[in-house]
């Protein structure tokens, strides 16, 4: 990704999930030490909160995009861009939201270790 798509970028911000293999050390398992170090210096890695609802929303939206828009053969990149743009416009127009089943009370109980005691 860095060498092919962003060869001129000095710094690339990369958002990764918290999978235990998603670490800088995996670069050293794949590349020679000098190359791994050079790549690592160019990456600014951000991990979402382990219970980050925004990541869940992003995954839900990508799934909906796949089901509603990308579930067929699309002949050209231009057609793909038009279809995705039209889908995005409609999705934004209807302002679809997520109905979370996890209540504030449940969150306070489950995540109490994250809150200071008063």
Task: Please describe what this structure looks like.
There is one protein chain. The chain is mainly alpha-helical and 118 residues long. Helix content is 48%, strand content 7%. The protein has helices at residues 25-30, 33-42, 53-68, 77-94, 104-110; strands at 12-15, 43-46. It has a two-stranded parallel sheet. The N and C termini lie far apart (47 Å). The model has no long low-confidence stretch (mean pLDDT 86).
What structural class do helix, strand and pairing data support?
A: mainly alpha
Number of strands: 2
Strand order of the largest sheet: 1-2
Helix % is 40-55%
Distance between the termini: 47 Å
Radius of gyration: 20 Å
The average pLDDT value, as a whole number, equals 86
Largest sheet: 2 strands, parallel
Strand content: 5-15%
- SSE run: EHHEHHH
Number of helices: 5
Q: Estimate the global geometry from the Cα principal axes.
A: flat
- Low-pLDDT parts are none
Characterize this entry briefly.
The chain is mostly helical and 118 residues long. The protein has helices at residues 25-30, 33-42, 53-68, 77-94, 104-110, and strands at residues 12-15, 43-46. The protein is flat.
């Amino acid at each position: 990704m860095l060498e092919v798509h962003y060869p001129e970028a000095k710094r690339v911000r990369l958002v990764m999930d918290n999978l235990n293999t998603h670490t800088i050390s995996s670069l050293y398992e794949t590349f020679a030490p000098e190359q791994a170090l050079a790549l690592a210096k160019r990456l600014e890695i951000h991990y979402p909160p382990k219970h980050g609802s925004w990541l869940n929303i992003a995954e839900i939206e990508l799934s909906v995009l796949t089901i509603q828009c990308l579930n067929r053969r699309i002949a050209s990149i231009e057609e793909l861009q038009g279809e995705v743009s039209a889908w995005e416009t409609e999705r934004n127009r209807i302002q679809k939201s997520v109905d979370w089943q996890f209540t504030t009370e449940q969150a306070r109980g489950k995540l109490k270790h994250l809150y200071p005691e008063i």
